[in-house]
Fold each of these.
Amino acid sequence: MVDVLLVLAFCGHIAWTVKASSQCKQALSREIRPHSVAITEFGAVGDGVTLNTKAFQNAIFYLNSFSDKGGAKLFVPAGRWLTGSFDLISHLTLWLDKDAVILGSDNPDDWPVVDPLPSYGRGVELPGGRHRSLIYGRNLTDVLHAGDNGTIDGQGSVWWNWFKRKTLDYTRPHLVELINSTGVVISNLTFLNSPFWTIHPVYCSHVIVQNATILAPLDSPNTDGINPDSSNGVCIEDCYISTGDDLIAIKSGWDEYGISFARPSTNIIIRRLIGHNRNGSGIAIGSEMSGGVSEVYAENLYFFDSSTAITIKTARGRGGYVRNIYILNVTLVGVDTAIRFDSTFSPHPDDFYDPNALPVIERITIKDVIGNNIKVAGLLKGILCHGFPRNL
């Protein structure tokens, strides 16, 4: 009973509303581009063995000449297309046939090392740089990843083994990462076996992820599904996610680096999400949330056979805020902990964080939650502030 009361104490009315229908717009008109080429025109071979990194790079370099002429489409036909990391461009549609599989190389040299993000100050797992994502883009406008449910497979098992054996020199790569980009649509695709987080829009605006399936083994380390990070205007809907960590994790930078960078995640909508996990949460906020998280609206969620359904993760030194969060119509089956507020996530990027930078958590509404076979309804772990009377 105590656990339930801890949760209900946070369930109040939020004074703001979110116009979800206007933000989550279909953008499939951008599937039609005046120029189109197939990856095979640049010498790619879809046998699952031939490395096609140069073919992808050359095709996209060619299509860049059409960016001011209505954009272009790069078509990936049926086959298994092995590749290392490659960059996208603005006004591009990357279109996968239903039987097309883009495979990430198992050679780490095919995933170049890049600088850490300024809001993190270092790699998430290790000091220094990080391996670049398989599909990567920076400072882009109007980018569409779509298809007839084609597949992007990171072949992450080699990375998971290196991570578990502690033989990596740099943080593992994401499967898809877009930085400082706007007008991004990811739809009708399956994402498999990411080495690390799967879809990572960071410093982005106007991002839509629709009808995506994201899968990784339940014991794979840190294979988050979708992580909006210091981003504004993100819509995630009609997705199925089953991974080894959080299905969706909303972030905004890490300790003093996130506080200094000061770019929040805000105006985020999540609808009709189904999934499960064993080591994470259905929806998580944090734990790297030092730039702030606000105006999050989530509805019609179904989580089953999972560790935790909804989590807000913070720590002393994070600073920032989590406010105006509205979650409703949640169905849970076989979930260990339904709702968890935890301020004990202690990993820090370095020793220069301010231990007096405390996160502010306010105006959280969670309502209409139905659960079956739930071990713990609610769990609250706060920060002990020295000097406060213990009977408060």
Note: Helices lie at 2-8, 20-23, 53-63, 157-165, 255-261.
Amino acid sequence: MMMIFRLIGESFWFAADALRQNKLRTMLSLLGITIGIFTIISVFSAVDTLRNKLQESVDKLGSNTLFVQKWPWIFGDNYPWWKYVNRPQPSMKDFMALKDRLENIEGIAFEASSGGRIVKYRSNSVENVNLNAGSQDYNKTWNFDFQEGRYFTEGEGQSGSPVVILGADIAEGLFGGESAVGKQIKTMGRRLTVVGVFKKEGEDMLGVSQDKNILIPINLAKSLFDVENERYGPQITVRGKENVGQEEVESELRGVMRSIHRLKPGAEDDFSLNKATILSNQLDVMFKMVNIAGWVIGGFSILVGGFGIANIMFVSVKERTNIIGIQKSLGAKNYFILLQFMFEAIALCLLGGALGLFLVYMITLVFTYLVDVKIVLDLKNILTGITISALIGAISGFWPAYSASKLDPVEAIRS
């Protein structure tokens, strides 16, 4: 066993010495591998980053959250708009019936929104504000934190008190660094008292953020606009209990909604049950296609690099033919010669792969610190790059190494 390790070590040093003596040729040889690994791992890292961002958005919505709406989020190839256009909007009557009859839910809220509003405080104003209105369980169906203040009380929600919760960007625009709680703002001709400010969240892939929104109780919104009108996007948001699967919650919700709308068995739904996983599943299909594209583009570069490595290894065998003959005449076994050239080819590819990974890492630093976008370069992608490099080295170097190991020592010395 010790002899085998010693021979492997000698083979490694022979290979390292050959690479060191031909620096320019070594660098040119590994360029193809470097570009290929860089392309593949860059694509994988970009896809992982997008997938993580998407998962954060889904987590913010809640993995067990369903939205009862008129229109579906995803349409098929043949878009049957005529089926959806005559559907009824979710109503307060639907909401009250669902609230009384659903059992597997953590919370249920009726929501409506009015965009493009102006919010004023003294001489300060913020434009293009999205005004959201929600029933009392809004805080149970959406995930958010407060940087200041609180949520509506039960009494404020029931009576439709003129209270409001501001997004972080709205509070900053109106009050600067001052406290917002207790101050009165004006929007849609009404004075509203600020009771809370949402914690700053930032934008995500699904556009879910409270930063530029304000929230009022649904019973207050009824006095400002028709919350059941289609132009205000009425919807019913349902969040299932943590210990109940989404399929079970969805099945119960669909059954109760069909019962409320008195739909006959076999009749199509006149409502849509949307969920964040619909979007994430669609994007997963896209991510798979991007991954395949990365393999194809990077694969061509690696293929060219592999042929380059094989060509250089044949040249290397030719240059060292007499040395191989001397080694064999002194007792070197065939596998020693084979390992010597195999290590050289694998070392070349590993160097190229390491350089490609280093370039990807530098890209992640640029995006993280200059563009403020965190790119994921995880251990899985690093191991993938190293594995691909080693495999290409083994495949590219095998035939040149095998031909070297089969040389006749007398003929080799005479060459």
Note: The two ends are 34 Å apart (CA to CA).
Amino acid sequence: MNDRPVWTNEPDLASRRVGGSVVWANDELFAERENLIKPAKPEFQPWSFGHKGQIYDGWETRRRREPGADQAIVRLGLPGVISGVIVDTAFFTGNYPPFASVEAVAVEGYPSPAELSELDWTTLVPKSPLTGDAENLFEVSSPRRWTHARLTIHPDGGVARFRVHGAPVADPRLLDLGALDLAALENGARVTAASNMFYSAPSNLISPGFASVMGEGWETARRRDDGNDWVEIALAGSGVPRLVELDTSHFKGNAPGWASLSGSADGGEWFEVLPRTRLQPDTRHRFPLEQAREITDVRLDIYPDGGMARLRLYGGLTEQGRKEFVDRYQAAR
């Protein structure tokens, strides 16, 4: 049974996969700061020594000989409302930090590390004890939209990964609300249900960019019955889709044979958006939608099972959808 908090199922806003970056750290002598936001789980190879000692898949600072603490600043790839953070000390045993704290800031534009250091940061996680070689989970209660997070370790040591889970909140000033991907995670869409997530998370379907390997898509277990797999997505706002893209890139012997799309508006009955359509392996399929209707949710059915790299649903927000989109941003500022 999975007893992890619900917020851990939300996307990692800091991940390199969605455009996150560790823009600064005061020290990284033993292991590079960029490792903090790698999407893959930490790894460890015993007796793999470099010229600075054991090579760690994480961020590790030198041993402090004076008072103070070490810090790293992460620019979130997806600015949004933070629900919780994970300070993962995997494989750090005699060299993990005994305490950590997390702060955040919201800023427009592209400030330098020096400019960020002059801002007033808000504490999300006060100085809290850590356990070595473990995921340390901290729930966050803040309704604001943040663009950067700062991890402070007290006084020094190593952290394998820093995860910042939450809900993306897009800036409407940076988008054309009449022509956007209604199903994009970065625009505020989210997965609400799925039949199966055996191999990988269904939220990968709506993540930014192209999948570079099979593991960056959504793949289900092999079915041994007469059913089929599916995923449901709440769109970024009420809109009218005009083009759908079903991308099976990297899925060759395990792509679905067919797929269909259904839509609904405000919890109403599901209706056909794209009829059951044959798919090819390792292919970006694009289908224009000639007679699309307004929808708030979409359901992708794949037959009978398999993997999909990306789902894109291009269209425009309705008047009500635009209002909700803008209101969501304004409420989190």
Note: Residues 319-331 form the longest helix (13 residues).
Amino acid sequence: MFFGEILCLVMFNILYKIYSRRSDGSEDANIFTKGNRSFNRFLLFIPAMCDMTATSLMYIGLNLTI
């Protein structure tokens, strides 16, 4: 799940770079890159780390019960 989420972020950045190099405003016209892009990407770091810690602890707990 984490890998899929990071791939979405990487794909967005790649598409945005490609469309912004065209200099014709296509980054605002394309459905994948239009919208507000002024968000802090590190805002999701704390919940992602909490989720990853919980998942890791659950995996360790499952391994210890067998």
Note: The helical segments are 2-21, 26-29, 45-65.
